[in-house]
Design a protein that fits this description.
101 residues, mainly alpha, Non-ribosomal Peptide Synthetase Peptidyl Carrier Protein, Chain A
Length: 101
């Protein structure tokens, strides 16, 4: 379990915004917490998988995609802000994320 610092939060935000900026060919300053991943950026679920892999490597996370899938069913992610929040929870709790209500 990782303790979440302001530095980690900032890092996660930068990675998510840079990732979607590059993948969706949008300027980073056009992306904010309320940006809808599917409607505004035309993102897809494969992008989520790529992003999860980036964070798994960067933070040496031990989390199964199945666990993330189960969590996502109860807590759907539609916006950049929701994705950032979920990613921070994944870094902090790894496979225990499924026990968060």
């Amino acid at each position: 379990m990782t303790t979440i610092t302001e530095e980690i939060k900032k890092d996660v935000r930068e990675i998510v915004i840079d990732f979607f900026s590059e993948e969706c060919e949008v300027k980073p300053e056009e992306i904010n917490d309320d940006t809808h991943i599917f409607n505004d950026l035309e993102g897809d679920s494969l992008m989520f998988l790529e992003l999860i892999e980036i964070f798994k490597k960067k933070y040496d996370l031990n989390i199964d995609l199945k666990t993330i899938g189960k969590y996502s069913l109860k807590h759907p992610v539609r916006t950049i802000g929701e994705l950032i929040d979920m990613q921070i929870l994944i870094i902090e709790h790894e496979n225990n994320i499924i026990n968060i209500s």
